[in-house]
Every structure is written in C-alpha cells, then in structure tokens.
Amino acid sequence: MRPVVIGCCLLVVSVSVVVAVDAPALPVAGGTDSAACELAASPCTPSGQRDGGLEALDAPRSGQGAVLITEALTHTEAPDLDTIELHNPSDSFVDIGGWWLSDDHGDPQQWRIPDGTGIAPGGYLTFDERDFGEVFRLSSLGEEVYIFGVDSDGVLDGYAHGFAFGAAAAGVAFGRHVTSTGDEHFVAQSARTLGAANGDPAIGPVVISEIMYHPVDGEPEWI
C-alpha cells in the first residue's frame, strides 16, 4: 500500500442549493470562473457539519439560479469593509433582486438584495457593510453567511448557499475551494480577490504532508 499525500488547511462549511429563477434583462456584474454550484439532497440542510468543520456536498449542480457565496471578508480594519462576494458560475443571467443575505442560517430574511440586481454568466458581485451593515455585521470571531433565493412572488424557494466560518486574522478573507474530489470547503485565502476568481488557499507554517492510514499487516499507521 502506497502512502497517500494530503494537504492541510483551515476548513469551514457550506450548505445546499435547490432551485433556479428566471432571468430578465437587468443591470449585471461581469467576470469569469469555472467553479460549479453544489447541492445537498435536502434544501438548506447540510450533509456534513455546520459548526466549523468540513462539509461534504452530495451532488454537483451548475445552471441558472446557481448563485454562490465564494468569498467573505469578515475581520477588517479601516479603510477595509466587511464584504460578501457572490458568483454566478452558470452560462445564464441570474436575477437576484429580492433575494436575501443573512448571517444566520435560521433567520434567512435579514437583508434584501435590491430589485434590479443581477449577475451575468460567470460574473461576480460584491456587497459590503455599507449595504447590509444596518441589518447585520460579519463577526471577526466567526458565525455564518448565506444567500437565499426567492420565487417570482418573492417567497423563499429553498435555494440557499453559504457557510459557517471561524475566527479570522485581520484582512484575511475566507474563500470557496473545491478539492480534486469535488468536495467544497471554505478556507482562509492566501490573498483577497473580491470581484474575481479566488486564488490559492492559505498554507500555515506547519502542514500534514503525508499519512499512512492503511498499512500492511504488522506495520503501524503513521503521520
């Protein structure tokens, strides 16, 4: 049995998405990225942990309505502002006017995204505390951030994406990272890339570089 080499990084969670919305012509944000949306089997219900551990999603999804939270800056000092980045990985325009941003998965209708807001195919859009700050603020000590979709009547439709996060170093953003096995994680980023594709995850001064988890008979497991 050959050893398996893995990397090590700070992991935070995500949650599921379910449905899509129609897309009329509205002002849009531009950009590109190849990340695909991911869905859990049950709307707004994670298939793993929501308390700061890793989250394994059940099935991939890419298509209209698949808006993702891909980066969040949660610990800022002036002149920086707490910021949430949204990304539309699909090849269709997505109207997000009337959708909701929240820092509590259990309380989705906190800050309503203004009517007339949309994201172009592959595009990015950011909101900062000047937008949502009168309703909620992102805690530098850790909490949650989610986007919730609505139907044509403005009623929550089960679509959600987001993650819980832990304490952050000042100026360090959390970003969505998809592993080679397709698992979605939210980890500290090596650089802030708000409004553009995420860079590489931050790597700490010490990492687990190799493990033996299934040795031959008589041999020990090791790290």
Protein model, in words:
The structure is a single chain. By secondary structure, this protein is an all-beta fold. The protein has one helix at residues 129-132, and strands spanning 37-39, 59-61, 68-73, 83-87, 94-95, 100-102, 111-112, 118-119, 124-128, 143-150, 156-165, 173-178, 184-188. The strands form 4 sheets. The chain has a 5-stranded antiparallel beta sheet with strand order 9-4-3-12-13. Strands 7-6-10-11 form a 4-stranded antiparallel beta sheet, with no helix packed on it. Strands 1-2 form a two-stranded antiparallel sheet. β12 (173-178) and β13 (184-188) form a beta hairpin. The chain is globular. The two termini are 15 Å apart. The model is unreliable at 1-64 (pLDDT under 50).
